[in-house]
Design goal:
With 309 residues, this protein is an alpha+beta fold. The protein is built from 8 helices and 12 strands.
Length: 309
């Protein structure tokens, strides 16, 4: 086997999307989304996408960049993905080496990576000096069989459910809600420095964001809760983020937003819904389980200090 690690080319987009779905079945990935992720990356992210090519075939990839949405400098992330048919052949190690070299050169002193919650990936992470930090749950909902809660016939006074498309002229109120919710989301990296222009490029304009299936709940005209939807045109739907602004929490508005989004997704022909939650995010886990989501896999966020291990 002749293995080459190189930078992503636009012609690799389909191969990388197929690879991601094969290695992590809960990911929503499309060629358009992969190409957009690279072309639209904010400069502060210092993004490089490396691919591993074996005998002319893309068999692995790694997304490598700084965590620029955190106010803490010097943090980077890289998680190799290797096709199931090409594991245990040094592909993941070669990809991670390239990613780590890039991140170190970009000034990262603390590196994060996701490892599937299985003995092999966790052993690989530990061998490379990464220690498991916190777990996350991946959940799946069969939309063809799910008994979704009925949509309310009447909403409380002042409450309205919109779609993301309704904010096409000015998405800034939705950005403000997303930024506030993301800053409060449990995790070992605080997303407390979101930039509006970066958010427009990486979230609002992302090819996989489905604004018609994205639900936004307003209270007296103010954005109170939302559920961002991703789709891939293959019947797969994923919740990119569901959250509520601090002033409106405890009123069931996130559940209302997600319920509307799931109903729209099913009506649009989506057959599978995926979501991921930090293991400590009890409120969101409870909401998803009530909708009928069931465990589909798990991951560990792992961390390594550069120069250790």
């Amino acid at each position: 086997m002749t293995l080459t690690v190189r930078d992503f080319r636009r012609s690799d987009a389909k191969a990388v999307a197929d690879l991601r779905r094969a290695s992590l079945p809960f990911l929503v990935s499309t060629p358009q989304g992969v190409a957009w992720q690279v072309a639209g990356a904010p400069p502060a992210q210092r993004l490089r996408l490396f691919v591993a090519e074996s005998d002319g075939r893309v068999v692995g990839s790694v997304h490598s960049g700084l965590l620029h949405e955190s106010s803490v400098p010097g943090q980077g992330a890289a998680s190799p993905q290797v096709h199931p048919d090409h594991r245990r052949r040094g592909v993941g190690g070669a990809l991670l080496t390239a990613a780590e070299q890039h991140l170190s050169a970009a000034g990262a002193t603390r590196l994060f990576a996701w490892a599937v919650d299985e003995p092999g990936p966790l052993a690989f992470a530990r061998l490379r000096g990464y220690r498991p930090s916190r777990p996350a749950h991946c959940l799946r909902l069969d939309l063809t069989a799910a008994a979704l809660p009925p949509l309310p016939g009447e909403l409380p006074p002042g409450v309205r459910v919109c779609t993301g498309a309704d904010f096409g002229a000015d998405p800034r109120p939705l950005f403000a809600a997303d930024a506030e919710a993301a800053a409060d989301e449990p995790g070992d990296v605080a997303a407390d420095a979101l930039d509006y222009d970066d958010w427009l490029r990486t979230t609002w304009e992302h090819p996989c964001i489905d604004l018609d299936l994205t639900s936004v709940v307003t209270v007296d005209g103010r954005v109170a809760a939302f559920s961002l939807a991703l789709t891939d045109g293959l019947g797969r739907y994923s919740s990119a983020m569901t959250g509520t602004r601090r002033a409106f929490r405890g009123r069931g508005l996130a559940r209302l937003a997600k319920n509307h989004s799931l109903h729209r997704a099913r009506d649009a022909g989506c057959t599978e819904a995926f979501t991921g939650n930090d293991a400590t995010n009890a409120p969101m886990l409870a909401i998803n389980r009530a909708f009928g989501y069931r465990p589909f896999g798990g991951e560990w966020r792992c961390v390594r200090e550069v120069g250790q291990g």
